[in-house]
Amino acid sequence: MLINGKTAVAGVIGWPVSHSKSPLLHNFWFREYGINGAYVAFPVAPGRFESAISGLVALGLKGANVTVPYKEAALEAADLVSDEAARIGAANTLVVLEDGRIEARNTDCFGFTENLRHGAPGWQPQRAPAVVLGAGGASRAVLVGLLDAGVPEIRLINRSRAKADTLSKQLGTGGSGRIRVLDWEERSAALQDAGLLANTTSLGMGGQPALDIDLGALPETATVTDAVYTPLETPLLKAARHRGNVCVDGLGMLLYQAVSAFEAWFGVRPDVTPALRAHLLGADLPAARPA
Ligand code: ATR
User: Is there a single domain that holds both residue 149 and residue 67?
Assistant: First the structure.
């Protein structure tokens, strides 16, 4: 790829950031669509985030993704905050607008629902309750995505119940009481009549214990998805596949959140293709989730 005086630049800001798969993703799309662009990782040390953000505008970058530990700080640093980012309480994408202002967005909820729409076209969000396990950063984006998709009831279950209660209260206004918090011990029984089970905990990730849950009560028509994508087929997805549930892996969430960011920066809505998935899977995926 030729880098010249007209190359448009974007990147990902984090600390550490060398594990990020976003450079692989975006640079694949530059090649695919013949765009004169480059996407790089910016390791920004603690205390330097604010100056890095000013630098984005000063250097004429299109924008940046933001990852741990700056997702909340990105909201403060931006001039404008999108509705989703405000509700989630974190941003993963910064867009430098024409006038030089920075807008903080969160494309993780789009990534989550878009992944499901492609991977489980039969999933009808309005028809049945969803069960969401976990109440961390990934869970917030998943909840906003599900609320906006019109899910009638979300059964939110976390090992530390207090975190789920707080999350439910924070999203309460927009959620119009649709989030119901249950105890961790109720996770198997909560699957009754559900149309979707989403794991947003780190359980099932390589090196972590598997999620201990009895899928017996889950309808066979339900969709099961996991935010964990290392391994691609977690023990949860394997068990669900064996009993006939439609399963959607977590890699798609990473890919689709990037679609939205790429379009905002470069004006082209890229496709998620088998070739792109293979490109990422060919790389050594670290034990991580799209958070
Ligand atoms: P992320 O931002 O990726 O969502 P996180 O904010 O650290 O990561 O959240 C991790 C989630 O996995 C939390 O819901 C956590 O539960 P707690 O809030 O109780 O800590 C959940 N989790 C991690 N290890 C777990 C375990 N052994 N059993 C049950 N839940 C676990």
Answer: no
**Domain enclosing residue 201, as ranges:** 110-249
Q: What confidence tens digit (pLDDT) does each residue in 16-69 have?
A: 999 999 999 999 999 999 999 999 999 999 999 999 999 999 999 999 999 999
Instruction: Specify if 290 maps to a domain.
Output: no
pTM of this prediction? 0.94
| Pocket lining: 141 vs ligand 1, CB cutoff 6 Å | no
Residue to mutate, 71, 109, 201, 289, ligand 1, most ligand atoms under 8 Å from C-beta:
201
Overall number of domains in the chain: 2
Residues 6 or more apart whose Cβ sits within 8 Å of residue 1: 27, 30, 31, 38
Nearest 10 degrees: Cα torsion 18, 60, 254, 114:
180
